[in-house]
Amino acid sequence: MDIEFVRSRFIKHFDGKTGNIYHSPGRINLIGEHTDYNGGFVFPGAVDKGIMCEIRPNGTGKVLAYAIDLKDKVEFGVDDETVPRTSWARYLYGIVQEMKKRGVDVKGFNTAFAGDVPLGTGMSSSAALESCYAYAINDLFGDNKVSKWDIVLAGQATEHNYCGVKCGIMDQFASVFGKAGKLMCLDCRSHEFEYFPFEMKGYKLVLLDSGVKHELASSAYNDRRKSCENVLEALKQRYPEKNMETLRDADWDMLVSVKDIVSEEDMRRAVFVLGEKDRVQAVCKALTENDFETVGKKMYETHRGLSEDYEVSCEELDYLNSIANDNGVTGSRIMGGGFGGCTINLVKEEIYDSFIADAKDKYMNRYGKQLKVYDVVIGDGSRKIC
């Protein structure tokens, strides 16, 4: 991201004075999809692409925000009770409100922001936007009194309360806590996590963008969360003594025992979630042993589960997964919430060029689209640039 570009737009659209510049990244997730809101485990890392903002207090009670990439400007009051209609402004408005709830005395400010996270790819540009502004507001108005976890939870609450997405905490966590060269295994219930060095010698991680855009606020995403809640309620009825909080508390025998009182669709959703919990733990163990073949095997299993049980894939993503398998790629799966976006691929360096060339050629022939390719570089989390 070009600091001077963001600064030039900020100066142009406001009073010519400069402010502070902050950056928060998007993320990849090696494995562990739709498990965060089920209290399970995830394995994300921050990337080198994200959202950058310049921000300066303006001495009023108004927020004046300019979205550089969209060439769109919005104004709202810090204490306004009406949520802005503009979709991108809802994230900024929500963060202001959620940081106020956490004791930060937010005042009016001018801001401009831009991003280089490819939109609709599953790299979570929205979490990067939330984290960037929560971090900036904490620095400017809170004297850094709010913890990193409060910043994460403020972003999640913004999604829930102002954007209509009942997400878990993985995206915001990765954006705030990321470290260059590290992936993280996060327990989404306890919030305990561990950094894993990302030193896959002989391998590369690469994203293939299907070009199919997803919209996580659609009913399809929230419907799947509701399915998990339905199964959890059935388990609570059958096992009241277990004090179950999420599907993470269930084992396979318990799940089978409620098969007669939940729908077939809800059961398939739960089967995926329990299987994914096991797969994340298997990948953690495999990485400590440099066993990338097991990592790759679990990635393919995740894709099958997301496609067949959770039903968040699409024809294009399944086709990219099959191309990876045909080329001998070690691991490949949908990344993100699904309904479009990217596949993430664990590729041996010696077949990388031939795989990418074959995928581009076949995708163009079938869909008439130029396949976009993003090599994964693991970067740092939210920070003040200057």
Strand content: 15-25%
* Separation, N- and C-terminal Cα atoms: 14 Å
CATH topology of the largest domain: Ribosomal Protein S5, domain 2
Please indicate the count of domains: 2
Can you give the mean pLDDT?
A: 93
Largest sheet: 6 strands, mixed
Strand line-up across the major sheet: 5-4-6-3-1-13
Total E-strand runs:
13
Counted by DSSP, the helix tally is 11
Q: Would you identify the regions where 5 or more consecutive residues have pLDDT less than 50?
A: none
EC number: 2.7.1.6
Family: Belongs to the GHMP kinase family. GalK subfamily.
Keywords: ATP-binding, Carbohydrate metabolism, Galactose metabolism, Kinase, Nucleotide-binding, Transferase
Organism: Xylanibacter caecicola
Explain what the structure shows:
- The chain is of the alpha+beta class.
- It folds into 2 domains: 203 residues, Ribosomal Protein S5, domain 2, CATH 3.30.230.10; 173 residues, 2-Layer Sandwich (Alpha-Beta Plaits).
- Helices cover 43% and strands 21% of the residues.
- The chain contains 11 helices and 13 strands.
- The strands form 3 sheets. It has a 6-stranded mixed sheet, with helices on both faces. A 4-stranded antiparallel sheet has the order 10-11-9-12.
- A hairpin with a 6-residue loop joins β10 and β11.
- The model has no long low-confidence stretch (mean pLDDT 93).
- Its EC number is 2.7.1.6.
- Keywords: ATP-binding, Carbohydrate metabolism, Galactose metabolism, Kinase, Nucleotide-binding, Transferase.
- This is Galactokinase.
